[in-house]
Design goal:
The chain has helices at 7-12, 17-28, and strands at 38-42, 47-53, 62-67, 70-75, 96-101, 106-114, 117-124. It has 156 residues and is mainly β. The mean pLDDT is 82.
Length: 156
């Protein structure tokens, strides 16, 4: 199955065109080689941790950019030291770029690099204006028609 038919979704939903673009981009994405490997962990109701194995890269070799709901992590290959001669080189140190599509209101809280693992904290932060709010129903006072006078108390 190579194509998704999203037309049933669009018959009853409005404003999901971004979802269609994300699905189309995922379908058309080239197969990547899996480097560097990573984990995505859900740590709470609205929090996540992205852990990426970046052995051999330092803080200055990595660039993390979040723009337009896309998180891009780029690693520039560290320069080998002069005078080193390898008989076998099995530790990958090549440049990479990984892109992750973020849902609306997902923000990167911070990043840390420890023991060759890059960890990014992600959290969904929904603005107050977009959070559900309860609307109170108030009893309405009966209104008299404009041409009707209010009944007056009878004089005794």
């Amino acid at each position: 199955m190579n194509a998704f038919d999203l037309s049933p979704l669009f018959r009853t939903a409005i404003g999901f065109d971004r979802l269609a673009r994300v699905l189309e981009a995922a379908r058309n994405a080239p197969d990547v080689n899996g480097y560097p490997p990573y984990n995505i962990e859900k740590t709470g109701e609205d929090s996540y941790v992205l852990t990426m194995a970046v052995a051999g890269f330092g803080e200055k070799d990595l660039e993390i950019v979040a723009r337009d709901n896309v998180l891009t992590i780029t690693g520039r290959a560290p320069q080998p030291e002069e005078g080193r001669s390898f008989l076998y080189r099995g530790i990958a140190g090549r440049a990479f770029e990984r892109r992750f599509v973020l849902a609306d209101h997902i923000v990167v809280e911070g990043a840390s690099l420890e023991n060759g693992l890059l960890r990014l904290g992600l959290k969904r932060v929904v603005p107050e204006a977009l959070k559900p709010r309860r609307i109170e129903v108030q009893a309405r006072q009966p209104q008299l028609p404009a041409n009707t006078e209010a009944p007056q108390a009878e004089a005794a």
